[in-house]
Automatic annotation (TrEMBL):
This is Rhomboid family intramembrane serine protease. Keywords: Hydrolase, Membrane, Protease, Transmembrane, Transmembrane helix. Its EC number is 3.4.21.-. Its main location: membrane. The keyword GTP-binding does not apply. It comes from Dorea amylophila.
Amino acid sequence: MNKNTIKAPCTVLLAVVNVIVFLVLSFQGMTEDGRFMLQHGAMYVPYLIKNGEYYRLFTSMFLHFGYDHLFNNMVVLVAMGWNLELEIGKIKFLIVYFVSGLAGNILSAWWDILTGSMAVSAGASGAIFGIIGALLYVAIRNRGRIGEISGKGLVFMVVLTLYYGFTSGGVDNMAHIGGLAAGFLIGVLLYRKRKDKRGSVM
């Protein structure tokens, strides 16, 4: 097999794992049902605090409420993740993904505690917003572009998505904001512009 066949293997693997988890759960019950999702690792603050089930901060990143939720997240994951992984490499990409996902869930949990609005939540969107946040920083460092993606296009997508979230019900906006901010900060810490063979910055 040609080594260059899959240029962004981590992105592809994450998408495949999310789809497999969803399909397995779909055969067992209704993924749109909050109780069913709670039984299989979804986020719920009372369980985190009272029962110490902190693993939910991680497992909830691989659960989705229905086909639309999964499809929308996976399309963005593959499109954005592919570009980021090619730009910063596999290890840094995985750091961005998982740390952003956890940061988004932590901010979401804090917000639930602050407002007293305890909801069952799940999804990879916090991690995906982290990818977008890191891409924003990379775009800034590269004069507004990353391959075929422009910084302005990323900003527009973020604003549009956040607007949709705040004007719709059932969207975990705090997870999005937390993931976005974490991804941007991780990008600042980890990203270094590559140099060409003559030693100049690309």
